[in-house]
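Hi, here's the filled form for the chain we discussed.

Project: internal
Contact: R.S.
Residues: 509
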Amino acid sequence: MWDEAQIGRASVGIDELLALARGERRAVLWDDPAYRARLADGCAAIERRVGRGLPVYGVTTGVGSAVVDPVPPQHRDEVAQNLPRSLGVGTGRILDELEAAAVVASRAISLAAGHSGVRAEVIERLCELLNARVLPRIPAEGSVGASGDLAPLSYLAALLAGEREATVRGRELSAADAHAALGIAPLELRPKEALALVNGTSVMTALGCLALERAERLARLACALTAIASDATNGNPGHFDARIARWKPHAGQIRATAWIAADLDFDPALPLPAAARLQDAYSIRCAPQAIGVLLDAAVLARGVLEVELNSANDNPLVDPDSGEVLHGGNFYGGHVCFALDALKSATAGTADLLDRQLALLCQSRTSDGLPANLISVDGERRFAHSGFKAMQIAASALTAEAQKLSMPASAFSRSTESHNQDKVSLATIAARDALRIVELAETVAAILLLAGCQALELRGRERARGRRRALLEAVRKEVPMLGDDRRQDHDIARVLGLLRGFALPLGDG
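And the returned structure, exactly as it came back:
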């Protein structure tokens, strides 16, 4: 039986969100009677305000710039149907199943905060669909990240209403057929419920959480790769003395220094081995300072994303205690964009660091005598081979693309929707860019890991110990050492599979 995550009982961490998205935990709405009563009180507050003839945005009024237009009582039910339909303007790739599941879980967690004026049945239906892996097919593009993720979340609202398409354990079905397969009827959403489903930050948050997890793993791998590069080039391990980091005590730098030192089996109490240089190039010597930026950016992003995940981030909001309905702007994704723009920049910077380490390995002058381009063929035949020459070009291309995408999305805010949304966060674009930058940086890391393993074996497999030896053996189970030239795209893919499948021996970090 699955472990249960009781949505609404307490704040949900990013790791728990991702466990829900992977289907490792089962989502249930907390069944505490007092909590359920507060959800009902929020719905009742909306009804009372409407019954007294007072305006409620998106219920008695139009949406966006149409807030000045009253909706006659006999047409208010149409708002719940037409709002998601009108927002069905998404474009681009369809979010994969993990991404879509993270969106569903994120929206359920936010609505369960109890300030959105939705019935328990709505949150329960989100949990039910998530557990059954009935997921909305959400186009990635179309959100400006203020007024929430309107277009992409409309595909979630439409699924609950039995419209558009769903992915059901890998198969595409109509939403109506997906409900029929579960033996349940679609929900008839109330006006405030339709608005609450689309008017939130759950897409940017979900994608940001996925990017964050991968960026954290990349940082740990980057430290291990630095150890390999230092060892293979006969570098000076004294660069990773813990005292250096303590005297400039950024938390990320301290962690990175400790990881690299451990992966090198460096002990400052023992005599330093003979090194090729007193000081290594910056891409090795300054690696703790560079990777430390990513580690600290990840801490920042984790804090911001966990607040956002557990927040009430739609509009209007309800105070179940006083019965007041409050109109504001919690749907604005500014904090998320700021955090993810920082994560983007730090991740691209790490890709650049690894690309530079690859360059050191591929030149005899900077590698302390390793064969140029790590060619392992002996004699005159070596002149007929290119080794890792093209791999370095590929890594450079990937790094350049990552750097290009690191431009802060927040700098491109623009006015839209008849100047009602006249300042927008673009956080969802930042989240998509963050995922792409992590993907590119992972690929650079995979190329460097292959090159590092080649370099270790050229030096002599027996000298690789600890983490370096474990990584070498893990890679060699999938990819043989490069002798004669061959295509290496499949080699890259296999190493990426190890990384993304949590199969590289990186330790707990």
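Let me know if anything looks off before we file it.
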